[in-house]
Amino acid sequence: MVSPQELLYTQTHEWAKIEDNTVKIGISFYLQSHLGEITFLELPPLGRRVKQFEKIAVIEAMKAVVDIHSPLSGEVIQINEKLKETPQLINSSPYQEGWLLVLKIENPEEKSQLMSFEEYEKFLQTTG
Questions:
Q1: pLDDT tens digit sequence for 14-57
Q2: Cβ(30)–Cβ(109) under 8 Å?
Q3: Total structural domains within the chain
Q4: Is the pLDDT of residue 119 over 80?
Q5: 35-70 as b/e, with b when 16 or more CB fall inside 10 Å?
Q6: What does pTM read for this prediction?
Q7: Contact 96, 2 (CB under 8 A)
Q8: How far apart are CA 56 and CA 51, in angstroms?
Q9: Which domain holds residue 29?
Q10: How many CB atoms lie within 10 A of CB 106?
Q11: Is 91 a member of any domain?
């Protein structure tokens, strides 16, 4: 079970759950609520390497199309196959069933550039 309070966040509203040398990535409740119903998702292929904050996926929704950026550098080792058929899981369960992908982390020190839940909450108050 993933709790929003135990995650790290980016300024572009992605979340990161770090476990050992991997990171599970999704989008925040805030972002999914501003997008409306998600209709399509483009995820990267397995084995793709990305740098921190590089575009890694695209989400199409009723209100917008947004690029999703990687919170950390790494290699894609898993994608959420359920989202291919049911991208709306991101709307209904952004922290549980609606996760996007998992990376094998290349540079653990990069996590210092991410925000804690408390920092993210403050960030939302200043940007919203």
A1: 999 999 999 999 999 999 999 999 999 999 999 999 999 999 99
A2: no
A3: 1
A4: yes
A5: beebeebebbeeebebebbeebbebebeeeebebbb
A6: 0.94
A7: yes
A8: 9
A9: 4-108
A10: 15
A11: yes
Residue 12 lies in a domain: yes
Q: What gap in Å lies between CA 84 and CA 92, rounded to an integer?
A: 15
Residue 92 lies in a domain: yes
Q: Are 22 and 105 in contact (CB under 8 A)?
A: yes
C-alpha distances (whole Å) from 48 to each of 45, 54, 106, 114 are 6, 12, 12, 22
Place of tokens 């990305």: 50
Residue 120 inside a domain? The answer is no
Tokens coding 13: 């509203």
For residue 38, give the 3-state DSSP assignment: strand
